[in-house]
Amino acid sequence: MKNVVPYDRIARNLSTWPFGAIDSFFDAPYSALSSVSSDAFVMNVEDAGQSYVVTAELPGVSKEDIDVELNEGRLSITATRKESEEEKTKNYLHKESSEWQATRGVYLKDAAREGLSAKLDGGILTVTVPKQDQQASVTKIAID
């Protein structure tokens, strides 16, 4: 029974044979240019006027396994998904879910440190980051 391979995996491998390996070889250098890797989660950033609204799709992740941090204007969201002990005791022939951790971040130049809020609802994390008044970061120096 351990030699059972799902039909769809065989069909996928046959559909790309014999050129699938060649295509993946030539695509490898360009995979780093992709904005979202295969093990990352989808994240959107919206400028809502007086604040930024950041949404991240995290289905199946509990709020205890999510870390949201704002450090000097960089908002980082880290999600970790682990198998429960109950799932480890089952005898799976094929399982496509696994333990993973992913971090995504975005730089918000005028993010305020106060008034931040985060809410997880239906697998969608929504983080609201208020904007602060833009202070001049350039200082003029008089020449003597």
Automatic annotation (TrEMBL):
Q: Which UniProt keywords apply?
A: Stress response
PANTHER family noted in UniProt: HEAT-SHOCK PROTEIN 20 FAMILY MEMBER
Tell me which InterPro entries the record gives: A-crystallin/Hsp20_dom, HSP20-like_chaperone, Small_HSP
Q: Which domain of life is it from?
A: Bacteria
Q: Which species?
A: Lancefieldella parvula (strain ATCC 33793 / DSM 20469 / CCUG 32760 / JCM 10300 / KCTC 3663 / VPI 0546 / 1246) (Atopobium parvulum)
Family the UniProt entry places it in? Belongs to the small heat shock protein (HSP20) family.
Looking at the keywords, is ATP-binding present? no
**SHSP domain: residues covered:** 31-144
Please identify the protein, giving its name as recorded.
Answer: Heat shock protein Hsp20
